[in-house]
Structure formats: C-alpha cells, structure tokens
User: Fold these one by one.
Assistant:
Number 1:
Amino acid sequence: MRLAAFDEMLPEISGLRKPYSAYDRWLKEQDPARLTEKMQDAERVFRKTGITFAVYGEQEASERLIPFDIVPRIISGNEWRRLTQGIEQRVQALNAFLDDIYHRQEILRAGRVPKELIAKNEAFLPEMIGVRPPAGVYTHIIGVDIVRISENEFYVLEDNARTPSGVSYMLENRETMMQLFPELFQQIKVRPVENYPQLLRQSLAAVRPQSTNGAPTIAVLTPGSFNSAYFEHAFLADQMGVQLVEGQDLRVVDGHVAMRTTEGYKQIDVLYRRVDDSFLDPLTFRPDSALGVPGIMDVYRAGNITIANAPGTGIADDKAIYSYMPEIVEFYTGRKAILGNIPTWRCSEPDSLKYVLEHIDELVVKEVHGSGGYGMLVGPAATKKECEHFSKKLAARPSNYIAQPTLALSTCPILTDKGLAPRHVDLRPYVLVSDRIQIVPGGLTRVALKEGSLVVNSSQGGGTKDTWVLDD
Amino acid sequence: MLLGRTANGLYWMNRYIERAENMARLVDAGLRMALTRTQNASEEWNSVLLSAGSDAAFTQKYSDYTAANVADFLLRDTANPSSTMTSIETARNNARMVRTALTRETWESINEAWMSLKRMLAKPIDERDLPSVLDAIKRETALIRGAFYGTMLRNEIFDFSQLGTYVERADNTARILDVKYYVLLPSISWVGSTLDNYQWESILRSVSAHRSYRWVYEADYKPSNIADYLILNVRMPRSLTFCYRFLTEHLKFLGDDYGERHACHVTAGKTQAMLSAGSIKDIFDAGLHEFLANFIRDNIRLGDEIAQDYRFY
C-alpha cells in the first residue's frame, strides 16, 4: 500500500521547499561515491563508540546499531516557533493534570475525564495521592512524539512523560554530522543542541528538595549495563558529570537516599531515574525488584529526594488518557490546544469497538499500555490473516486497545544505493521542566527505513536522522 | 568520589586485560618449547596449563596436550573463564559498566580490541596463523594500555585500575615460577644442561623477559639470576617487587586522598617490606616453593581486603 505523503524536502506539487534550499545546493555538488563513503564512516564511528542498543528477544544480535541516515531533517525557524508554543502548552497541561489527579481531582469532578479511566488504570499510583514533589514538578523530562501530515498540519502522536529515551541519539547524530560534513555547518546556520546535558543538569538542580544545603548531588539511576538504553544512561551521566548508579549502589541512610562509595555512603538529592515505577521501591511496588531502592518512597514522601520523573507520571501519557488530551489542555490552560491530537477510537466504548472491528484493515490499533512499536497492528500493511488474528485479541480485551486512522506521515529523503528516496518520519523534541520550560531546538527524527513502512521504532527496523532547526 | 561498584569494575577490568595478555604470552612460551623440543611437548603444555591455573578444566575436556588443544582452550574457549576471549569480553563488560569513569580513548580501545579479537577468534585457529594471532592479542592489549596511560587522569580511578593490573600480574608471575620452581633449584643449576637452558628460557619468555634478561645479567642463564630477576628486580616490570612497589604506591595515594588506612595497606606493606629486605639466597635457603606459595596466598588476601576496605560489594 502506498499513501500519498507530504515530502518535507521535495513535495510533488510545489517543488523544493525553502528550508532545504541551501542543503540541496550543497548536495548537488557532492560526488555520490563520496557520500556513500561518508555513510560507512558514520557507521564505523557509531560502532567504535559503542552507541548500541539491545533488542529484546534476539540472543545473537544482542547489541545492534540504530541505522543512521546522513540526510538531515530540516525545520525552519518559523515552523519551530509554532511547534514550541504547542509543546509548551501541552507540557504545562500535563504537569497541571498530574498535580490535580493526585490531589483534588477537579477534572474528574467536572466530568471532563471519566473517573473509571483513572481508578482502574495501572499507571495511576495511589501511593502518590497527596504527595507534592519538590518544586511541584511531576514530569521533568518529556519527549513529545509529533507527526506531520502536510505543510501546516502537525499532530501529537504520543506524550512520553515517564522516561523518554533517545536524546543521546539526538546529540550523537549531530556530533557525527559535524564530523562528517564540517563545511555544511559553516554554510548553513543550524541551531545548536549540544548544551542539552548542561540544561538537563541545571534543570534537575533547580528542582532539588528544599532541605538541600548547597549544590545538590545528582545521580542517574540505570537498571544496569544489560538494559537496552544503557548507552544513553552512561552517556547522560558522563555528559552531566554526575554518578551513574544502580539499585545495588543505593540504600536509605538516616532518612536520605545514599550511594555506596569507596569512602562510605554519600547522600543523593536528585535522582534522574531510568527505571520504571514498578521497580523503583520493592517495599512499595514490586517486591521482587532488585533494580530499585528499598524505602526510597518514604524518603520521597518526606521531601528528602527529588525523583525525576516523579512516580506515577505514566497516568498522563497513557494511551487511554491520550484521547482526552484536547480536553485536558483546555481545562488547565483555558485555551484550545495549539497542537492537535490524532482522532482516536477508544475500543472500551462499544460503538468505537464496532467501528474498529469493521475497519481494522484501515486502522492502526495499539495496546493501551504498550510501547516501542510492540503489540500494534498497522491494518493497511497487515495480511488478512494477521487482521483476523488481531481482531480476536481485540474482541477479547477491548479496553486494552485504542485505534487511530492510518496517517500519511510526512516523508523525508534518505540516501539509498539508488540515490535519494522518500521515507516516513516522525519527530521527538525533548522538553525540560523545572521553574521554566526549555525545549532544545531539534530532537530525534526517527525514520522508517523500509519503503512504504510507517513504523519508525528502532526495535522494528527504524533509523534516525540529524534534526536541524534553522536559525533563520 | 567514586562508587564502590565502579572501583570494583575498574579493578576487574584491568585484571582481565592483564589476564587476556598473559594467556597469549603463556601460549607463546609453550609454542616455542614445542617447536624447539619435540619430545616432551605434552609435558610443556601441561606446565603452561598449570601456570594458567587451567589444567583441571582442560583435562575435563581434552585427553591430549597438543598445541591446537591448548591454544584453543587458553585463547578462544568461551567456556574457559580465563581464556583470552572470555577475559577480553569480561574486561569489556566491566568497562561498559564503568564507562563514565573512562576516557573515550580508553573505552574505544577496549571496545575495538573486543571487536577485533571476537572476529579473529570466531573460528578455530589454524596452527600456521597462531603466531600472528598471538601478536594481534598482544598488540590489542598494548593499544589499550597506551590509551589508558596516555589519557587517564591520575586520580582514584587510575589507582583502582592499577591495583587490578598489579595484583593480577604478581599472581601470574608467581604462578609461572611456582610451576617451574624445581628447574631453578641450585642442585640442578650446577648441571646446566641444554634441557635446563630451554626451560629457563621458557620461563623468561612467558614473562616477555628473555631479551631484557641479557641486558641486566650476563648472557648465560643462571637460575639464581632468573629467580632474582623475576622476584626481586625493581626495574623488571613483571617482577613481584615491581608489582608491589606500585601496589603500595597506589594504596598510599588512596590512603592519603581519603585520609584513611585499611587492612590492605598493612598487608601490602608487609609483602613489600619482605621483598625489599630479602635476598635471593635467603629465599632459596628458606625454600623457593614455600616462598611462592606464601606469596600467592598473601596476594589473594590483598585482593580480598581491597574489595572489602573500599566497599566493592
């Protein structure tokens, strides 16, 4: 199946778009053989540096590279300004929603979001009721997945408000591009992204517990070196100049979380955790977890540590909640959402379920709690048998699924053996929340490398591109 | 400030890099013996395995002490926890865990060594290629060492790394000597047969000292000189004294930095004092084997104390 998609470089109707004009001029002067060489250079750099990720369930290739394409995805200054306004508004609403949902629950009382959607939701943590995190921030680091349909239509596909990953690729992609094509960055003014780690550090320091004396001690908590995103955890700790800790390094000492150092236990004030809620504290959540810190939730409730992102933020990016985001944005900001949602059928509603089952070959059906492109069906790309099989799963547990129309995601060219060829892309900008909201000009562009494919997830054969925001 | 787990990772990363190289050196010495003396080759391979501490595991798997079997077991067998391949893989896993403590150059040299050795050791080694494989292993570990010494800050991270290197190296040199201690005993030394000459050269070769020996002592091999060189010489980078000179130095840095001395300082200091006061004659008089056995035991204890004193676990 081929969808008529909007190409961000060379739309069929209007020809070369303006943000790409300088790049296009440069590209035309290049020797194709040299570009192919550069592509191989890039792969060598990534492999040497060990920028790999683990693919679960594949024993052999336990460390793989995310393919990198050397054609940048370019966004004009104007487009970016519009996007950031929408993102800021959305992030404000997400934090306000979280504060409300764990306190007065006014949005439920007002009937704008159904009560049972919260009460029965696994992502809602009753342990967080009445807890106000340091500085009142719940979700500190957010990766908002955005797709584009046409020149002026952007939609939010997903709000990643728990532990969004991929920011290390944004940084390494830029680093690699600057190494490969230094001359490009002299000719074209691209806004820098490399200060992200400094911003992250400042942002985390700004939300330290009130009781902290002096400069806070910050640490990144990783599940360990076998985790699929371990490279990123190590990378961020390194770039921020903070400790990379595992659960086995930490324990509660005198009402504070402390790490075991060669000189004894040292207090930690801010923990940027890359461990899921359920593993965070075996005394509060999963008792079999060896990845967390026994008792950390007590320290948290006493206000003696900042956990970023706060436990329980998953309720804000849950796929069942997603469909209510327009209402949520309007409820807390008093204005219509600048960035729209993709129309979504909640399969828990009988009418919607009926529609989805009847049109399953046209829709994208996702698990409410799934992520990483696992457990989803892209109707138009699936065989009849796959559709039937999925319909059965869907009918058995309708509330576990949502469905969305198959959108013609915009395309951006990649370099193939036969020259440039369009492939579908999405965009994940990274947002930092402390006493202010900061968005690094850029983000991670994920690209579906298979012709016609709409699945951009790295675990499903997606690649990445450097993302340029022009300083124009 | 350093996490105990990170100190542990640095320590073992370096022990395993050292071990990966030691295995290649032992195979090299064995190969040399097998090439020059065909009659007793299997006995020589047996000593190589004993020095590597891998004889029991080897005989569970093989019945013949052949070059191909021993080289395969010591270099590429991933079921052997001390083989070069396993060692380099363990070193890399540790390096990955402590990545934030390493310079980019150090990490990349370890990662690249792992990639290239994995490729090279993927298939059984053709006997004709063995010398070039051994060279490649030594080259990769030399590159790691170069990147490490050339780029790492001399702080506690460096200290814990060096502790791993020298504890492993001291253990290795002591074991090589202990396996062959009888050929160094004075009663045999008077004979000085061709056979002994080969044995002595083999010992020196397994610590890459067959050339440098001649720079320091006279051209002829003399057992007491060989023992002196490997045990007491302060300049010889694989001697027990050299290892303990650096072990005490790095422990002193840590003690000064942290303002605290531990059991490991006492243990290392005792061994160091014993080595610097001793003469090779005293050691022979008291019994070379006993001396080495005690040394190996104390060295293991030092490793355990370092782990405990600096909260590795």
Number 2:
Amino acid sequence: MPPESPSAVRVRVLQVFALLAALAIAGELVWLHVVESDTFSALAQKQHRNDTQILPQRGSILDANRTLLATAEYLDDVEAAPNVLRGGNLAQTMASRLSQLLDKPEDQLLALLDQPGKPYVLLARGVAPDVSARIQEIKQDGQAPGISLRVTPYRTYPFGTLAAHVIGFHSQSGSGQYGIEGYYEDLLQGAPGRRLSSSAPFGGEAGEATWVLQNAEPGADLVLTLDGGVQHIVERELEAALEEYGASSGTIIVMDPKTGAILAMASLPTYDANHYQEFHKPSEDAYANPAISMQYEPGSTFKLITMAGALDSGVVTPSSTYYDGGSIEYGGVEIKNWDESGHGESDMTDLLAFSSNVGAVHVGNRLGKDLFYEYVHAFGFGAPTHVDLWGEVRGDVLTPQSPNWYPSSLATNAYGQGIAVTPLQLTTAVAAIINDGVLMRPYVVQEIRTEDGVERVEPTPVRRVIRTETARTLLAMLVEASGRSESKLHRVEGYAVAGKTGTSSIPLPTGGYDERFTIASYIGFGPVEDPRFIVLVKIDRPTVEPWGSLVAAPVFRDVASELFRYYHIPYMASRHETASETAG
Amino acid sequence: MLRILPRIVPANWADDARRKRWPDVPLTVLTFALPLAGLIAIYSASIAVSYNETGDPHFYFRRQVLFLLVSFAAAVTMFRIDYHWYSRIQFFGISLTFWLLAAVVGVLVLMAVTDVGHVARGSERWIRWGPFSLQPSEIAKPILVLYLAQVFAKPAEGLNRLAQFAAPTLMIGLVAAIVALQPDLGTAIMILLIGAAVLVAARMPFLLLVGVTVLGLLAAWYAVLQEPYRLARLRAFLDPFNPQYQDNVSHHINQAFLAFGSGKITGVGLGRGLQKFFYLPEPHTDTIYAVIGEELGLLGTLAILLLFVLLAWRGFNVAARAPDLFGQLLAVGVTCGLFGQAILNMAVVTGLLPFTGIPLPFISAGGSSLLASAMAMGLLLNVSTQTISAPRKKKGRSWKMDANGNPKP
C-alpha cells in the first residue's frame, strides 16, 4: 500500500492554488453581480434604450361585400436635421431641391430648414411612394444631407365621407376615435413589436445590426354588416331629402329586423375621416354619430310601443274601441290630436292609421303606468342597446319614481313626447315587433379576422319583449292601418310595405317646445310577408312641411324601392298590400 | 520501427484490493453536466450572432449538438484506452507521444509559414477541410500533456534528472511561441500554464522553476510589446472606465461588466438577456460566461464556477492517487488544462485579467475546444479507474522510485 508520492505534495499545492483562484473569481463575481450591480445595470439600460417599438399594421375595416372602408398603409414622413445643414447656403439648396418633390413652397421649406440649432423638423407627412423613392435616390447620391425618411403607418378611408359616423377615424395621436375605430381600438391596433439596435455605452459602435426581439402583431380586420351599396343609397336619399324639405339634419338607419344587423346608418351633416380635423367645431361634437349619440322625442312612432304593451298585456284587443273627440284631458293637461280633429268611434287600427293622440292616451291609461314603463324598458328604452359602436347614449325615460314625473307624463309618453330615445333604440324596438317579439342586440361587425382565424359574430337575442301572437297581431294591424291611412306617400308600387309616421316637437333647453320646428320621422319595413329590412327615416327641422307623413314617408318610399331593387326582391312578390288597400 | 514496451506493473499493485475499477463518479457526472449546461447557454447566447451570420438563429446550437456527439465518442474512446499504452508505443525508438507532438508542431509551423490556415477574426487559427475546421492549437494542449508526462515519468537521478527538464521546457516554449504568433496569445498562455503545472508536479527544482517562470513572463511581456493592441488592452485593463480607452479596446470588459451587473443575484431570466445582441463580443464563445451572468445572475455564474472547482478537486485527487508518476502527471496536466482555462476565461471576462480571447471549456460554442476538452476528460477518467486508495497515515514510509519507475517498498 503506497502512500502518496512526494510529488503528490506538489499536486496538493496546485490543488490549493486552484481553490484560491476560484475564490478570487467568486469574490469578483459578488462584486460585479451584487456590489456594483446598480451602476452596471443602469449603464446597460442606458445603452439598451435603442430598444424601439415596431408599429403594428392596423386592421382594415371592410363592408359586408368585403369592400375596404378603412385601410392602413405605411408611408414615409420626410424629416430633416437643420443642425446638419449649417453653413453655406446648404439650407437654401435643400429647400429648392425638395420644394418641387414635396409640392411645398420653397420659402416655407427654407423657414423650416434654416433653424441651425434644431436637430429635427418635420417637412412633410405621408408622402406618396414615388416621391419617397425619389428622395431615397437623391439621398444615395449624397445630395440630401440631413434629410431622412421615417416609415409611419397611415390610415386612409377610400370612400371619404361614406359611413363616416359608423367608422369613426384614426387620430394623428395614434388612437381610434368614435364609431368602429373607437369601439374596436383594442382589436384594430394590434400589438407593437420590439426592435433592438445597438450602440456602445460610451459612444463607440457595438455593431450595425438590429435585432427584432418580437414581431409586431397586426390588428384584426373587421367585416361589417353594413353594406356599402345600401349605405350609399341611404346617404344619397338623405341628402336629397334634406335639400328638398329644407331640413338641417337627418338620420336614416337600415337594419335586418331578424338579426339586428345594421345594413346602413347614415347621418347628415357628416365629415371626411381622411381630413377629420377640418370638420372640427369648437361648440359641438362634429364627429358624434347622431344615430346613437343624439336623443330625440320620437313622437307618434312610439305609439307602436304603447300598442304593443297594451295588446300583449291584454288590456285591449284589436277590436277594442274608444271615442275620439279630438282632444282629451289627462292629469290636468289637455291633449289634442295632431290635426286637432276627432275621428269618433275608433278601433285600435284606426288609432294607428290616423295616429290619434287621444287614442294613445286612452290606451296608455288602460295599460297603467306600471305596465307601460315595464314595456318601455323591456323594449330597451332608457338603456344602451350595446351596439358595437363608440359613444352610445342611453336615452331619457322618466318613470313614476322620478321626481319630474307627473301623471300627465304617462299620457304624453304614450304618444312619444316627454321621452327621449336614440334613433337606434327606436329602430331596434320596432324590429323586435317584426321579429316575433324578440329584441335583438344591434350590431355592426359580423366578422373579426385575425392571423389565428375568423371569428364570426352571431346575432344575439336580448330578451323576449312581447308574445309572438301579439307581435303578429300588431304587424297585421299596422299593415292594415298603413292601408287605411290617408297618407299614401310611403307606398312602393308593387311591394307591400308598412310603417308608422311620426311628427314630434323638439324640446327647448329652457323648457317647453320649439314652436317653429318639428322632427319628421317614419319607421317602416318591407316586404311585409317576410321583412328583409326595417328603415327609420328621421328628418330634423324640415321647413317646407312639418309632417312625418309628408316629409319622411316619401324618403322611406324612395329608400325602400331602391332596397327592393338592390336585394333583387321580386316585383309583385306580394299581393297583400293590394288586398289591404281594397279593404281600407 | 514499431515497438511496444512491456507493461510495467508496480510490484505491490496486484495486492491492492482497494484499487478502483470504476471511474471517479463526480468526474463522470461532470463529463455530462458541463457540456449540457454549455448547450443551454449556447442556445440562448448564440441566437443573435447565429441569425446575423447565417440567417438561422439556432445554427450554432444545432452545430454544437453535432460537436457534442462527436466529442462524446472521442471521450469514450480515450476513456477505454489504458493510459499506459501512450508510453509503451515507440516508433524508431522514440515514444509515440513525441511523434504526436511533432505532428501538431509540424502543422502549426506549416500554418505559420504557408497560408493553409484559415484566417478568422484576424487570427490564423483554423485548418479547414471541407465543411470541417479544426484548431490545432486546441489539440496541442492534451498532446503536450501526454508528451511531458511521458518524458518526466522516465526514471532519472541527479544530473540526469536535471538534464531531463531541458528538452521538454524548450518544447513548451516552442509550442507556446508558435501559437502566440498565430496570433493566439490566450491559448499560448494556457500552454505555458499547463507546462508549468506539469513541471511543478514533476518536481522540477524550485530555483529552476523560478528561473523558467521569469523567462516565461519576459517572453509574455515581449509578446505584448510586439502588438500595439495588446498593450492597449493592458492599459485599458488597468483603467477600464477611463474615457480615453472607452472605445473598442476596453469595450469587451465594460460590456461584460454591464452583463454581470444587470444579472444581479438571480438574473434577468434565461433567454431574456440583451447584452448578447451585439453588445458583448463573441457572446456564444469567449464571453458566454457574461451571458450566463446576465441571464442567470450570481447563482448561475457561481454554479458554473462550482462545477469547475469540483472538476479541479477531483482531478487533483486523481493525480495525487495515481498509481504511477506517468498517470499523476497526465492527471495534473489535464486538470490544469481544463480548470486553468476555465479560470483564465472567467478572470478575463470578469475583468481580473487583461482581455484575451479563450473559450470556456465545455461551455463555449466551438468544436475544437469541446473535442480537446472531451479527450482530456476521457484520459482523466481512465487514470481515475486505476488510482490507489487514499493512503493510511503511516509514519516512516517513504515512496521512492526504483530503476523502473516503480515505487520502492
């Protein structure tokens, strides 16, 4: 058994040296990792500041036919570093060289460039690709010192004003505002990526390379239920109507009553989302969508809601009668018919046909305040419809519990005054009657397309408001009433349509109503045997005629007849209306 | 021309019932653990460089996996060969180890005088053969150890013993000088270090050792003066944050400091470090320790250090208990080669020594380094199977060699 050799002693010495060396390293590691770590990590963070964002591609917005309504593209901003252009007449030279390319006056460019202290000025935003390519060439020839191009995402709206209120816009601060752009900001914007470009901590170069840490994730593309063709029809007709009736503003909504899908939603005056800044008004919100953000007193169109409640609760039947003397006193207030004339003994269909306020008060009274407001709320008034658009208001429904509610409120509410609704709320509520009594959530986006796939938005029922039989009875009554009505201006030749007029007073902020103006409206649908669309026409402050039957009904007719053609609904598909006409 | 010497078995060896037959367990574990730790580090550290150079972020990682398989085969082969064979084979009366070293030196000289070598990063270190490239200077290290151990294991007394030191010492200087001329000062220093360790273990007289050390230092100083960049690095080392040197020269050190500092105790997380994105030079090879420091923090760097300490501890234990001087010197040389290089790399990256580019054994990406390290480890493991048990404390017994190099009873 040999002991360790004498040279093994030296091995042990080496072993101890090794340990000492390791201890030295360990000490140094503690010094670097712990003692001095704050200093060094701060320096590291300083140089890693070249960790920049990669802007994601914003999602597109397409209409139901997959036509692009909003697109994102990358354009170059032209920037300059005036402090590089110091000395000689370099600034002058650059100004004249760029003036033609950027289509800007030379002296304007010179004023920007001739600021020797400044490290950065913006010369032009989003120049066309060919201009950008030309500048790139000049740069490569060394003819454009201090000029640089910065890739920037830009939003364009190919159809300008079309559906501007629905789409909203992408502001220059970089976020979506109003409409779809505002509501779906989170989906549209995507997620930015990260790019690292390096520089040494003390000014030296660590390498030219850049490194993409994370790719930008593009935003989702949104396919709307809104049909560009229908939208165009509606906007054209609305514009013509405002002109014809000397009205200040107006709104038209077209909706599929069975799903709640919004097919068109137009309001005038509107704006061009490409140049939204030019439409800014200090006094009012120029971009708000009147169909969802402005409320009005609906007037007689609301009688449908009162009637629906009364029929559904069984307090009246279609054959119930009342005596219409032209006016009635209720809650200490005298309420008159719109034409201040009576219709004598009337049934429920007459009420709708002649739009009798006296009848509405009578029915409202039969229904009673509790049931009446129960139905009003069930139809979605006084609450947001939760449409997928930015900036919806809830409307204003007084209830018997409110301090401002008086017994006479029930009477006025029954014919649609003293209650504020949005155009969309009314459209959705009446659509529920067409849809066998089931209220649908209105929606604008039908498909969300991401890199992961396509998510389809299904129609969402909110609640059953009235029984199916009630809904069908009321529809039949409405069809017959449309026939009995003295006004025939809503009719489309060869097609069966039905609807309800409305002429409402406009409340003044000071209290009371504006004596000069009305809101003329019509809510109708067609074809009656299998409704494909419901249309609300609302014309504000017409000056030629005040009446819904004379101002809004013809607009409905024009829109409806165009829609029949647009949707290829067969001519004379229904003889129902002719039948009802004979009956009336 | 080929002659195989008889196996000399120590007289008392057959009786040693406690002679080990299994390789040293910690060393065996390290043989797997170190390259695997390296593979994980390379996966993270190499992506930026790899993507930049090849377009594939995992190119270096995948290549390292291949190197690992080849190196493992080499390690197993070395482990299976009884180390005594290296001293038993002779050609033309001269030991195989000499011929091997002569071959390596020949290749190195050939690279120096012709342009067969492949120049990369300003240094002609590689021999290319198709898609393969090899660094002869890396292979020179284990072969030099074999040669030195074989020479010193030969019995000699008195003046003969002194004369025995002359040729190998010159040989160490020669190999180091050629490698330094490539230029690869880091590997040259490692060769000097390994040589010095074997000389110490071979019981070179103390005064002679001092003399050789002084000579080596003078040579190193001369090498530094020859290249302006080396002097600049040295100055930068002495004053790392002086703005005068805060260009590329001290950049290496500073960036490594920032990496360690950012890592703090637990690190920023595996794969999440930013210093490897072209801040650190050679993040997948020479400065991979800094990448580990940033991503895994003090815990990570200490863990790697401890693995190497374990390697040194067990390696020197094997040396101390080797059955003969040849085995002992082999174990010393190999252990110094692996541990010494690790310490040198760590000392450079942590700023304890002036910058020189040498890989961290087993951890850094690179085939030649891994192959040489794996072969060295195989050799060490073979020696460990033949060690004798720790000696009992017995007084009055000395251990002297007889004429055959066997211990005298």
